[in-house]
Amino acid sequence: MQSTNDVSAQLNKPVLKEGSTGDAVKELQQLLKKYNTYTGAIDGEFGPMTNKGVIAFQHRVFLKEDGIVADNTWRALYKGAPVDMPILKKGSTGDLVIIVQNILKSTKDYNGAIDGEFASKLERAVKALQKRTELPHDGIVEDRTWFELSKIPH
Q1: Would you give per-residue pLDDT tens digits along the chain (154 residues)?
Q2: Within this chain, do residues 71 and 108 fall inside the same structural domain, yes or no?
Q3: Which of 28, 29, 76, 124 is spaced 20 to 30 A from 60 at the CA atom?
Q4: Is the same domain home to 60 and 109?
Q5: 16 CB-side CA count, 13 A
């Protein structure tokens, strides 16, 4: 028999979306309030305001912004941080590099092109963020750096 404190039991959550109702929606609304992405009532009704809160939270933790609360969104809500993010470092390319470039441009750490190429300028910018947030400043974007990036409005 699994206890309710078991991590796997905690993550055995229903998929929620607009129109869902019940205790799981109340729990979702409480978690969204904790992260300041929802200001409505804890009423167990997944309406437009809850949907907006879910999308804002998904944006913050780099998840697909679809308003659907499936396993990854639940896990991020419990962790309070991004989940399953790849490690990015010099030589990495793609959309997530563009996201990092944009966030670090907003903090004035990065002044290079928004081109999806993780080059020396971005590595220096990541190191500056890491130094400021008291992380090992190795220029590699891993879990703790993703968490710091998620705290910056983007």
Answers
A1: 433 333 444 568 999 999 999 999 999 999 999 999 999 999 999 999 999 999 999 999 999 999 999 999 999 999 999 999 999 999 999 999 999 999 999 999 999 999 999 999 999 999 999 999 999 999 999 999 999 999 999 9
A2: no
A3: 124
A4: no
A5: 27
